[in-house]
Design a protein that fits this description.
By secondary structure, the chain is an alpha+beta fold. About 30% of the residues lie in helices and about 30% in strands. Strands 6, 7, 8, 9, 10 and 11 form a six-stranded mixed beta sheet that branches. A five-stranded mixed beta sheet has the order 1-2-3-5-4, sandwiched between helices. A hairpin with a 2-residue loop joins strand 8 (about 210-215) and strand 9.
Length: about 270
């Protein structure tokens, strides 16, 4: 959309903002539904996931597949329904060539394309059970046990005092992030755990804000689905090392440095009695 008219430009901007907001709302809703579908399969998590809901909009199924992959780290296909056909998108792990696996049977699809980690495809609805069985069989054959956990590649070690707005601005020069360009991850600590506050509408989900002490300075970090583990660490009195991601956050028209925990490990000091 291009224009030199200010009023028309304002209308375009409002339209795009509304469209983006609606897309984000759909993505959030569909992702929650997809994650619940996978949760219902537990504890027997299959080696590959094929998820379908007729109301899922084909325009956001790729984003939903990415979120499911982030959570469960299994090759994932997500489908919606459009004009009587299943329109889907897939995302895969670092070791499983999703494109190659499906390319072997491309004659079964109405349309198909992609690359190692991501695919798009159209399928007749009656072929969905076959696709589930086929993909799970290929994943079971080709994915080793150690490849069912995402590799944790670190970009360096930091002190939390270094993570300020200037640091975030430097990180933003590496955007956009994606499968081939993941968000940077940093090792911090050892840190002392001072306080844990569960957050979210449902405390049983285990999301928390955690207060850490480093060099006599306090820092709040967010942990998703880790509250119980950190509560146990707090009770034990152990320090921790963290792997974190850092980005710019916004809340109530306020900008802040958003620090989230990716992984952690307790620290044991061998020289302490």
């Amino acid at each position: 959309m291009l224009t030199q008219n200010k009023e028309e430009a304002s209308d375009f901007a409002q339209f795009l903002h509304l469209e983006n907001t609606q897309r984000q709302q759909l993505e959030k809703k569909f992702t929650a539904e997809a994650l619940q579908m996978v949760k219902n399969k537990m504890p027997n998590l299959p080696d590959a996931l094929v998820l379908y809901e007729p109301n899922w909009h084909p325009g956001v199924v790729g984003l939903v597949a990415s979120r499911v992959l982030e959570k469960y780290y299994r090759p994932t296909l997500v489908f919606g329904l459009l004009d009587g056909k299943l329109k889907g998108s897939g995302r895969s792990t670092h070791s499983f060539n999703l494109f190659a696996a499906l390319d072997e049977v491309r004659h079964e699809f109405i349309s198909f394309g992609g690359h190692f980690h991501a695919v798009g495809l159209t399928l007749a609805p009656e072929k969905l059970p076959w696709l589930c069985e086929y993909l799970q069989s290929k994943a079971q054959e080709l994915i080793a046990a150690e490849d069912k956990t995402p590799p944790l590649n670190l970009d360096g070690k930091l002190s939390l005092t270094q993570v300020d707005n200037h640091f975030i601005s430097r990180l933003e020069t590496f955007e956009p992030y994606g499968i081939e360009n993941p968000r940077t991850k940093w090792l911090v600590g050892p840190l002392q755990i001072k306080h844990i506050k569960r957050i979210g509408k449902d405390p049983t989900q285990g999301h928390a804000k955690i207060l850490f002490l480093e060099q006599n300075k306090e820092f709040w970090l967010t942990a998703f689905s880790m509250a119980e583990a950190f509560e146990n660490l707090l009770a034990s009195g152990l320090d921790v090392q963290l792997v974190i991601e850092a980005k710019r956050g916004f809340w109530n028209n306020r900008e802040y440095v958003d620090l989230s925990i990716v992984d952690f490990a307790p620290v044991v000091y061998l020289d302490r009695q």
